[in-house]
Write a structure and sequence with these properties.
The protein has a seven-stranded mixed β-sheet with strand order 3-9-8-7-6-4-5, sandwiched between helices. The protein has 16 helices and 13 strands. It is α/β, with parallel strands linked by helices and 392 residues long.
């Protein structure tokens, strides 16, 4: 079969008609509360750089010094000759930070989730996933070859019912986001852990959007809900959000990490992240732990926004995290509102299917410790101007 460009063009045109066509914007500045995008300086309410560490001078300094020492590329996979002292030190520090025996670095969060689920499960096993899990978790479940079953969002009774009907599985894995990336709400890990224990299942948590932000020291949702390695045996976290760098890790028992080293194909068969990234992340981890004010300020900004949004009767979804979605519904209208905000100097991304369910397009407002109260108030003022459009 030859590649038919006419068919592909028709499919692209259909996406445009449905308001689902995606385009990239070109950033010409560092990440921050204000960015230069497509030639404009705009206030950025779309980044996952929750603690404002992506452009921190100490993190940049560590990266530059490590590049002088290690060069740019790692040269190989971890299991050949790509595993540096910086990689090893970061893994040990992440394990200590999360209260786990060991941690294992992956090049991306997507690769971590695919690697873990496909390494742990196969034919004859079953994986249960929250319906609103990140795409990488869902893809990992499908690719594992295990029976793949989704339960209603945060509905543990539905999960229990599905587990009760599943007979004869060799292994059972329950998988959930910690903070759901498009809704901003959190999983009830305490009850999930209890349910997993009672059903002889493993529990895996993707804490990409909680790490650095939640918990007394920023160790994430497992710290916030006071859960041990035994209760949550598989913990995944990303480095490109709260930590402001790049990559991901999985933390857990020694036997889990050894299993992943041997069997996780997305770990075994890919080049290691640059050692300079690992060294920069070590510094951002220290800043995350030391600078409690970043989490405190972030929480204050979120509360300020929610109070203002409720006063404006905006369609605010229930979330106490740094992710504050405004539910619009129609994809085309969400895009138009996002474009109107951009013209007024605010970058607020419209999220559409298939990232979210049909009819649930939204504006995904995210906050950073680098934002000021004045910038939050400015956003609310602009949203008040387009309020009739939002509430149609």
């Amino acid at each position: 079969m030859t590649l038919n460009s006419t068919v592909l063009r028709a499919e692209l045109d259909q996406l445009k008609l449905q308001g689902l066509y995606r385009t990239r914007r070109v950033i010409s500045s560092p990440q921050g509360a204000v960015v230069d995008i497509d030639g404009m300086s705009v206030i950025n309410f779309s980044s996952n750089d929750y603690l404002g560490l992506a452009n921190h001078p100490e993190v940049i300094k560590a990266f530059k010094q490590a590049t002088d020492h290690y060069g740019v590329g790692s040269g190989s996979a971890h299991l050949i000759c790509g595993h540096s002292q910086s990689h090893q030190a970061l893994e040990e520090e992440l394990a200590d930070f999360t209260g786990r025996d060991r941690a294992l670095l992956f090049s991306t969060g997507y690769m971590a989730n695919l690697g873990v689920i496909t390494a742990l499960l196969g034919r004859g096993d079953t994986v249960f996933e929250d319906r609103l899990n990140h795409a990488s978790l869902l893809d990992g479940g499908v690719l594992s070859g295990a029976k793949f079953k989704r339960y209603r969002h945060n509905d543990l009774q539905d999960l229990q019912n599905k587990i009760s009907k599943d007979n004869g599985a060799n292994r059972t894995l329950i998988v959930t986001d910690g903070v759901f990336s498009m809704d901003g709400d959190v999983a009830d890990l305490t009850r999930l852990a209890s349910l997993a224990k009672n059903n002889d299942a493993w529990l895996m948590v993707d804490d990409a959007h909680g790490l650095g932000v939640l918990g007394g020291t920023g160790a994430g949702i497992v710290e916030m809900q006071c859960l041990s390695q035994q209760q949550v045996p598989v913990l995944m976290g990303t480095l490109g959000k709260g930590l402001g760098t790049f990559g991901a890790f999985v933390a857990g028992s020694d036997v889990l990490i050894e299993t992943l080293i041997q069997k996780a194909r997305s770990y075994v068969f890919t080049t290691a992240m640059p050692a300079a990234i690992a060294e920069a992340t070590r510094v951002s981890l220290q800043l995350l732990i030391k600078d409690n004010w970043r989490r405190d300020k972030l929480n204050q900004l979120v509360k300020r926004f929610r109070v203002g949004a409720e006063q404006l009767t905006l369609p605010l979804m229930q979330s106490d995290s740094a992710i504050q979605p405004l539910l619009i519904g129609d994809s085309e209208r969400a895009v138009k509102i996002s474009e109107a905000l951009l013209k007024k100097g605010f970058l607020v991304t419209a999220i559409r299917p298939p990232t979210v369910p049909m009819g649930q397009a939204r504006l995904r407002v995210t906050f950073s410790a680098n934002h000021s109260e004045q910038q939050v108030d400015q956003l609310l003022d602009v949203l008040s101007l387009v309020e009739p459009t939002i509430n149609i």
